[in-house]
């Protein structure tokens, strides 16, 4: 599938677009991990397209360095990924996601319904999309830093699903407790806990990949998208 260009508030940036075999279809903006729009994120878009969605992953690191594509296989790449994470402006990233969401809604392949999904850093972005955008629904996989964003929960007006890894090395138990308590009873939020899983348990080929847990989370996500993005 080709890269496309999205026009944002601060300039143009690239995004990977995957189209389903039948259109018009609902769309999903896919928020990247800390490794950029790499093979993993492109494969996720292709998988979502195979499930009947227009899927688009924008380059959220373009202001730092366009076109970053790292893997999780070397220490040097991990070091660069964390450097990018620390340099990344989350608020600017949300604006880029919103620009991508608007572009997808205007795309000829889109039915008009559009949501968001994100992983790791992108899981944080997906949570914020639920709070700050008009996405029709959002899904967050093992989002980092959500305990510091609970003040925005009152702005979540559309359905949000969270996949939380019980042994997430980047989201300690006390943070998980804050997230669960802070979102308990929220009418729009569904939280699924995977008690024995570590961060990125759904990243196929990753160190902590767990096929059963990934399949469970992905099946829940697909059902959620199909329910809330139906025309």
Give the name of the CATH superfamily: Alpha/Beta hydrolase fold, catalytic domain
The average pLDDT value, as a whole number, equals: 97
Q: Estimate percent helicity.
A: 25-40%
Order of helices and strands: EEEHEHHEHEEHEH
Q: How many domain units?
A: 1
Low-confidence stretches: none
- CATH class group: Alpha Beta
Q: Evaluate the radius of gyration.
A: 16 Å
Please describe the structure with a list of short key phrases separated by commas or semicolons.
231 residues, alpha/beta, Rossmann fold, eight-stranded mixed beta sheet, 8 strands
Question: Which secondary structure elements does this structure contain, and how are they paired or packed?
Answer:
Blueprint: E1 3-8, E2 11-18, E3 25-31, H1 39-50, E4 54-58, H2 75-87, H3 90-105, E5 110-119, H4 121-132, E6 138-141, E7 160-165, H5 173-183, E8 189-194, H6 211-228
Parallel strand pairs: 3-4, 3-5, 5-6, 6-7, 7-8
Antiparallel strand pairs: 1-2, 2-4
């Amino acid at each position: 599938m080709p890269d496309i260009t999205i026009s944002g508030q601060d300039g143009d940036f690239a995004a990977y677009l995957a189209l389903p075999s039948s259109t018009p279809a609902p769309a999903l903006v896919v928020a990247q991990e800390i490794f950029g729009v790499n093979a993993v994120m492109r494969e996720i878009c292709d998988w979502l397209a195979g499930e009947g969605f227009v899927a688009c992953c924008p380059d959220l690191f373009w202001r730092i360095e366009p076109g970053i594509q790292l893997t999780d296989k070397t220490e040097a790449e991990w070091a660069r990924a964390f450097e990018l994470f620390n340099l990344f402006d989350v608020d600017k990233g949300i604006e880029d996601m919103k620009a991508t969401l608007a572009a997808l809604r205007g795309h000829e392949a889109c039915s008009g319904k559009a949501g968001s999904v994100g992983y790791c850093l992108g899981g944080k972005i997906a949570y914020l999309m639920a709070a700050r955008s008009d996405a029709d629904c959002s899904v967050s996989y093992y989002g980092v830093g959500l305990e510091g964003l609970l003040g925005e929960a009152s702005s979540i007006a559309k359905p949000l699903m969270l996949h939380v890894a019980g042994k997430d090395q980047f989201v300690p138990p006390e943070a998980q407790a804050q997230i669960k308590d802070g979102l308990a009873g929220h009418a729009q939020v569904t939280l699924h806990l995977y008690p024995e899983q570590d961060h990125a348990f759904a990243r196929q080929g990753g160190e902590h990949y767990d096929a059963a847990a990934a399949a469970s989370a992905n099946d829940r996500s697909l059902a959620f998208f199909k329910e809330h993005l139906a025309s």
